[in-house]
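Q: Entry one of two.
A:
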Amino acid sequence: MRTVSSIEVVKDLPRFLAEVEAGEEFVITRGASPVARLSPVVATRKRSRPKVGQTLGPVFEIPDAALEPLSAAELEQWGL
């Protein structure tokens, strides 16, 4: 890990970024004191999103009774 001054980094940031992309790490100093580390970001794996209509878990079925009209007693119970 190389040590560079903040002035050097400000003067030539694109070069330092290119080196970081290549795997290099830097400690940035202000005067003689280290203040930051410039290192590559570890890429996170993107989770794939399901396609429209694709199920993520077990398939479930809607019972036929769920689509039938309510009986008179059920309608009365709901105040309809």
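Q: Entry two of two.
A:
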Amino acid sequence: MPQADTPTALQQALTERILVLDGAMGTTIRSYGLSEGDARSSRFASNDKDLLNNGDILSITRPEVIGDVHKRFFEVGADICETNTFSATSLAQSEFFVADPRERGGRKDPEFYQNILENPFLNDLAWELNVESARLCRKWADAIGSDSGRRRYVAGAIGPLTVSLSNSPDADDHGFRVVTFDQVLAAYKLQIRALMEGGCDILLIETIFDSLNAKAAAVAALEVFDETQSQLPIILSAAVGRGGETMISAQKVEAFWNAFAHVKPLAIGLNCSLGPDLLRPHLEELAACACTCISCYPNAGLPNPLAPTGFDLNPQQMHDFMADLAGSGLLNLAGGCCGNTPEHVAAIARAVNGIPPRQVPVLG
């Protein structure tokens, strides 16, 4: 289980330096050249749907690969690595294991997702994915931390889901939602309990494109803390569009902070999105209003299918952009999202090294 001094230790570290987050799990996994058979292994050999794009499944079918990814990110300077659990809820995993009713003229709706939530196979799978992913990351955090003499941390990655609570997919029925708040809450509670069981230090609710989905994740965390009499620090990170809005829910970054300030997050920030240059004005807006630490782990620029990683920026370019953000006093945590390999994270670690962290405003 997580150590009791984690929040204090993290808070102290964040006053001393900019902490480094890891990079892109998916981008890095692709460099291993895995096949569909590798992803399935013997355990899921007969599954009806392809699993190669289900990166989370690799924590149990190819744990040596996921462990090596964590090892590489920690070795190049990451203080915090995320668990391989971005889509490790029963709701998200159903995409890979349950027939889509729309293929037979039906639709996904709350009744469909209630059956998902009551599916023993999917619940057991979600629990296993989160526990084992957390244990894998914990193993390498402790090993590299012990070898280097600097403590490393495990952040339980909680992704945004593939469904939205804010928007209807039915143009003829604007009140329709495919899933309910309570259903999303239940899925997140199972994931959070499993991440805590596996030994996470932090819960990272990330790539928020729908603030109501994130609200369900935050409520789930608070309810689990109350039920278990155990608490972990929370980091919240949104993906924004060019106007600084949280995608589907269209909530600007100041409103995003106001909506989650009551959670008292360890940090709030931006990830994925537009690349570090285009994120800058939105990060400045968030840093101006948030009374907590600021995190930023952007994509390596915009998508580019001709680039080796699928994104524009190479490690030196990420170094220069992140050094500029850090030097402007905007960062407490820095890392990379899509397109950021261990080489990119090594460059980001060099970029922020020795630069003082942003001073967190204190409410009067």
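A: Comment on entry two: The longest helix spans residues 120-148. Confidence is low (pLDDT under 50) at residues 1-7.
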